[in-house]
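ok, trying the design again with the full structure, not the truncated one.
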């Protein structure tokens, strides 16, 4: 146990010396915190950041406009539900270019992006419950709204969509890797420990699954289970276990020949205890490294599925879905609408790959 602890300490010290590993770990920690506090950080905290304003669609980063909010009563929400899933918002938001105070109403001119005169509309004082006089409406119900990353083609706040979309990518990665580890470790450990016909049967299944292109298998599973968020979890997880199983099998076949495993058998321990307590703990280093790569792969697969329209379904924000909605804007003069989510995906995937490389170097006993 002392030796195990010292090896862990040595690996941790080596990891700390790897600049890109530590930098990536810090970046991913920040991403996880952003995912947890996404709705608290997002300017648009409505569910799925889905407040549409078609008159201000596809605006450049930093765009600012006056916004009139006409409240609509909704059932009170649990604060915890608002924190994790956003606010059920039925309020009507109208971008305005100017407004005038009338006797019992406010007259607004709707914003237009082409510079022409917008429609003029009147809204009675009775629509604004917190205003006791018309002159109070501008202070309480008209605000200057700024879109730091601009708006998408439906006039939604792109920054809010990006912040909430990080949840999809990280959640897919976590769940897919978790599913792949459970299946892969179970199958690989069983095949490597027992050998014989059991090993042959599991290896046949592994080779068949391995021979099918990953994206095609994911698409087939997704189509069989239906489109949606949870279906993507299962589909991605069920395609990533093969590599884990192969590595675990190889590790177990080597470790089971060690003297401490022979001693455990001599003491009468059952196979399950020998595998879980003695073999697997000494076989997990390569699995941890593969998991980092699988995490990156899961994010790419989810983005690809959302781009094809069979991943997370609208209005749920997904980085792949945002690219799908705006890839044509690359040649229409607003490439940032597709480049921003693309760079986000690239950054997240690169961080996981760098962490995988750092873990590989840290756990390499030959360099100790």
């Amino acid at each position: 146990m002392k030796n195990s602890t010292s090896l862990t300490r040595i690996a941790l010290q080596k990891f700390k010396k790897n600049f890109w590993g530590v930098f990536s770990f810090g970046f991913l920690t920040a991403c996880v915190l952003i995912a947890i506090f996404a709705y608290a950080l997002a300017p648009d905290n409505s569910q799925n950041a889905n407040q549409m304003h078609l008159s201000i669609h596809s605006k450049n980063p930093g765009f600012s406009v006056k916004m009139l909010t006409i409240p609509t009563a909704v059932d009170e929400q649990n604060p915890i539900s608002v924190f994790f899933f956003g606010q059920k918002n039925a309020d009507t938001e109208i971008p305005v270019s100017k407004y005038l105070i009338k006797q019992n109403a406010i007259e607004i001119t709707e914003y237009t992006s082409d510079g022409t005169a917008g429609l003029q509309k009147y809204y009675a004082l009775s629509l604004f419950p917190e205003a006791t006089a018309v002159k109070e409406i501008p202070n309480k119900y008209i605000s200057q709204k700024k879109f730091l990353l601009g708006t998408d083609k439906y006039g939604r706040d792109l920054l809010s969509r990006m912040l909430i979309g990080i949840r999809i990518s990280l959640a897919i990665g976590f769940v897919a890797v978790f599913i792949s580890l459970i299946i892969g470790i179970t199958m690989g450990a069983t095949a490597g420990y027992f050998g014989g016909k059991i090993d042959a049967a599991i290896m046949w299944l592994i080779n068949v699954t391995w021979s099918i292109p990953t994206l095609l298998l994911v698409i087939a599973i997704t189509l069989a289970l239906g489109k949606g968020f949870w279906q993507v979890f299962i589909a991605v997880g069920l395609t990533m276990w093969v590599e884990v199983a192969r590595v675990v099998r190889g590790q177990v076949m080597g470790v089971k020949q060690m003297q401490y495993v022979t001693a455990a058998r001599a003491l009468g321990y059952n196979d399950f205890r020998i595998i879980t307590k003695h073999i697997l703990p000494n076989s997990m280093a390569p699995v941890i490294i593969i998991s980092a790569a699988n995490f990156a792969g899961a994010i790419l697969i989810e983005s690809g599925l959302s781009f094809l329209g069979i991943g997370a379904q609208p209005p749920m924000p997904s980085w792949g879905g945002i690219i799908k909605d705006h890839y044509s804007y690359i040649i229409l003069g607003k490439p940032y609408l597709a480049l921003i989510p693309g760079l986000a995906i690239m950054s997240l995937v690169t961080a996981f790959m760098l962490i995988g490389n750092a873990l590989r170097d840290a756990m390499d006993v030959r360099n100790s």
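Keeping the full-length input from now on. The chain has two domains: 2-33+159-367, 62-155.
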